[in-house]
Please model this.
Amino acid sequence: MELIDSHCHFDFDAFAGDRDTVWQRCRDLGLKGLVIPGVSISQWQTLFELLRLRPDWYGAVGVHPWWVEAFLAGPGGQDKQLLLEDLREQLSSWGRRERCVAVGECGLDRGVETPLEHQCDIFRVHLATACELELPLIIHVHRYHAEVLSLLKEYRPARGGVIHAFSGSEEIAREYWQLGFYLGIGGTITYSRALKTRRAVAAMPLESLVLESDAPDMPLSGRQGQRNSPENLPDIAVALAALRGIPVEEVAVQTFRNTELLFAL
Model:
């Protein structure tokens, strides 16, 4: 199988000691590339340095909802225009556009203390940047689907994007797909208790799905407490194939194609 991990935090310290070894094992398993999302401004430079080492790693630039509060408390954090300019510069400047394939990770999360109004302010900056530069979005959404859908309908980003770690109903899934957003499918589908999400994933067109590990987070069922790894992506493909009752090779071929189309790889 040939696979692409559409969402992997491979730059995190959890992989600092064995990143090259892990990636070689991934290559041996058929992984041809991975996308590393941005989470905070302080992380972007480290991410770019990693991308220079590997032509099969791609990046994105964004401020994750978990880091919004720290951003707002930092220098210039209240100036949304500065963030817009910073995102624009990072995505458009020397040699980076071809390796930075998306805006994100960005979005809304009900589980953090940052007020929704502040999260929306920062999310809007990402939406505007994606529209201006015609790039797809990597969106994190936790228990704020209605709010995210409302903003997507307002901005209508032409390149769409992906709803990372999708967890929701078939109805919500179809709304995202109609707006041009793929669904990121990871370890959640390996949990039998995730009935709603498993039903949605089984019902949606295979053309709407991309595979992701979200490593080092989002471990598969039975591996809780362990570091998640992009090495587990083939197991996610197997789980998706079982849910849909189709050969795993079909899942691999279509999700690979979907990821290439999504990020213009």
Summary: The chain has one domain: 3-263. The first strand starts at residue 3 and ends at 5. The domain at 3-263 is CATH 3.20.20.140 (TIM Barrel).
